[in-house]
Amino acid sequence: MNSKKTKWVLFVALLLIIGGGLLAYCVQTDGNTIKIKDIRFIGSDGKLNSALLYIPPGVSKKNPAPGIVATHGYINSRETQDGFAIEFARRGYVVLAPDQSGHGFSDPPAFGNAFGGMDTLKYLRTLDIVDPNNIGLEGHSMGGWASVIAAATNPDGYKSLVLASSSTGTYGAPDGTPTFPRNMALIYSTYDEFSQLMWGSPVPKNIVKTDKLKKVFGTPDDVEVGKLYGSIEAGTARKLYQPKMIHPRVHFSTEGIGDAVEWMQLTLKGGKDIPVNNQIWYWKELGTFIAMIGMILLLFPLGQLLLQANFFKELNETPAEQKAATGFGWWVGAVLTVLVPLPLFIWAIGYSAPGKLTASALFPQNNTTVIMYWAVVVALVSLILFLLWHFIFNRRKGASFVNYGLTWKDKGLDWVKIGKSFVLAAIICFAAYLTLAFSAWAFTTDYRLWVFAIKPMSLLHFRIFLMYFVPVLIYFLVIGLILHGELRRGKAGSEVKLWKETLINIFLLITGFIILEALQYGPLFAGGTLAIPAASLWSIIMFQLFPIFTIVALVSTYFYRKTGHIYTGAFLNTMLVTWIIVAGQATHFAF
Q1: How far is CA 413 from CA 318, 383, 409, 488, 567, in A?
Q2: Same domain membership, residue 243 and residue 288
Q3: I need a labelling partner for 529 at 20 to 30 A (CA). Which of 132, 226, 287, 299 fits?
């Protein structure tokens, strides 16, 4: 790109960030009528808790409103509940959307202090703008367990409860009975990945037949979807909703959110009678997605402009002569690149089984540690295969590590240029982070779409980021060698177009996960269970890997073309991916 075009792309990126943020802000505040406060409070265990507080217009100490605690699930955050929170607040409910213990900006450890559920209900009841006789609890997945525990510890502190993709009697949540929890609705999808864990039914739609659910609904017969059981006045009301979707889609669907709204309107008094199908929350998600695209786009013109600065000019180099695999050999390398990570991923997630992994001060996030193990082992296996290919086949053709973008001709490893590549990547990453910090300050938003989010880091998150940085860097250095050394496309001296090479690299990085997800979900969608039920959590985590590796391919390919070496792309990818994962995962070690 020439300088004028580069500046124009930079302007478009900033426009997307600001425009997307404004759209998200206008939607979540319902036209600047709902106040959203970013709050902190100390829990009963002395730990700091974080939450967003949504205050509808006209609500005050003299005019209190019904209140709802809306709690997210495992490895999510308070913003994940935005659909529920926005629609509740539009209907006149004060909404407290907390970060669970060890999630977001709430102090670790995860699972601590009953997931933080007791303290969030207690805090909501201290607000003089909330009617203490009209309080509801809504929780998705693990947030449902937090809600059930809160209901049990404060049985007179709430009037109604919605379990979204959740259950009673799991992970410390008390068992349900015909009278507990009070006025309970269950939104449980027909393709939920956790039906065995939650309700003891391998096939999700068959939870209606389980003794556990029948006990809660107070019936000896199969529970009927949509039927109102018990009495709202007596606090024994029950209703089952079964949307046709998977576990994480319930909090990202008009049907699931509409079901929760309907139940709160039935069981709480004082809200506005806005029809259930009148929803706007998805426009907020569109806004944060647009802003996310803007942040990602920003990386490239900013990098181009910085490479024109005197300090970084020497990094501007044309890639060395191509000496990559060709013909059948290229396809062998491509297939190995796609398939090798799959069995290693299944192996790595075995460490997430209870009792196999203990969080430590060095590696305090269990799921991030599992990803780190996978990345390092994939890197080692891939590096061995790469070196075998190089020394057995490619060195005979005159190839050296210069041709792979690893070293410099006549210099070997140029540590000055490697250091400058690190500084360049750090400046670009910091600039991207500043846009997120601005969005959090100006619009009270992060960057997100569905289960994928780019969130600000706390100081603790940054400390954790540093702990995982080097192992993740090893992975991205090796991936750079594979993509731009062995699998580089085009004939010697003639590069394929940048966009075409980028698409090829995206394909190489995400196709394996597409295959794994297809194998996992095929049996479930056919009416059975996941192929590997024990990997249900990781089936959901894998959805986040598609956008992550798309970003990785974009960054790695672009900066290899601009610098002729793998370092800037590897450093920047390590910074971005480690930031995204660490800020979005649960912290299990009690610092």
Answers
A1: 17, 18, 9, 21, 11
A2: no
A3: 226
- Name every residue whose Cβ is closer than 8 Å to that of residue 128 and which is 6 or more positions away in sequence: 61, 64
Helices (H), 246-398: 254-267, 281-307, 327-339, 341-349, 366-389
Of 343, 302, 269, 280, residue with least CA distance to 515:
343
Looking only at the bridges linking them, the beta strands covering 65-71 and 130-140 are parallel
Residue 168 and residue 152 in one domain = yes
Q: Which residues contact 299 (CB under 8 A, 6 or more apart)?
A: 428, 432, 555, 572
pLDDT value for 309: 95
At 80, is the pLDDT very low, low, confident or very high (cuts 50, 70, 90)? Answer: very high
Structure-block tokens of residue 402:
């210069």
How many structural domains is the chain composed of?
Answer: 2
What range does the domain containing 452 cover? 284-584
Q: Are 150 and 125 in the same domain?
A: yes
Find the CATH number of the domain harbouring 203.
Answer: 3.40.50.1820
pTM of the shown model = 0.96
Query: Residue 21: inside a domain, yes or no?
Result: no
Q: Which residues does residue 292 pair with via DSSP β-bridges, in sequence order?
A: none
Nearest to 15 by CA among 293, 285, 282: 293
Answer yes or no: are the C-beta atoms of 502 and 553 closer than 8 Å: yes
String of b and e for 197-232 (b: at least 16 CB within 10 Å)?
ebbbbebbbbbbebebbbbbbebeeebeeeeebbeb
One domain, residues 74 and 170? yes
